[in-house]
Specification:
The protein has two domains: 1-43, no CATH class; 58-89, no CATH class. It has one helix and four strands. The protein is 9% helix and 22% strand. It is mainly β. It has a two-stranded antiparallel ribbon. A two-stranded antiparallel ribbon has the order 3-4.
Length: 93
C-alpha cells in the first residue's frame, strides 16, 4: 500500500507521507501495479532522460539479471562470483 504523494523513485513529499510496501522492503511488480492503479489512467508515462523527459514505451522496459540488493538498496551488475536474481528494469540516464 502506498500512502501520501510518492513518485516512482520512492521520494515522498514533506507532508509526513510514507511508503508501506505489502511485500516488505523491496518494491515488486505487483506493488508497482497497485501503485499505478491509484494514478490517473488516461495520462502518458514519461521518464527523466538527462535534462528532458522521454515517453515510456514497452521496448524501454527489460527483465535482467543482477546481483542481490546490498543493505543500502543499491544493486550491482551481474558478476560470475555472486548470486543473481531477475529484476524488471525501467529506463534511466
Amino acid at each position: 500500500m502506498v500512502t501520501g504523494d510518492v513518485d516512482l523513485t520512492g521520494r515522498v513529499d514533506d507532508r509526513s507521507a510514507c511508503i508501506t510496501l505489502l511485500s516488505g522492503d523491496c518494491m515488486t511488480v505487483s506493488d508497482l501495479i497497485d501503485y499505478l492503479k491509484t494514478q490517473p489512467q488516461d495520462i502518458k508515462v514519461a521518464y527523466r532522460r538527462y535534462s528532458e523527459q522521454c515517453l515510456l514505451e514497452t521496448k524501454d522496459i527489460a527483465i535482467e539479471d543482477f546481483c542481490h540488493p546490498r543493505p543500502d538498496g543499491w544493486i550491482q551488475n551481474k558478476r560470475p562470483d555472486m548470486e543473481t536474481e531477475q529484476y524488471l528494469v525501467l529506463p534511466s540516464n
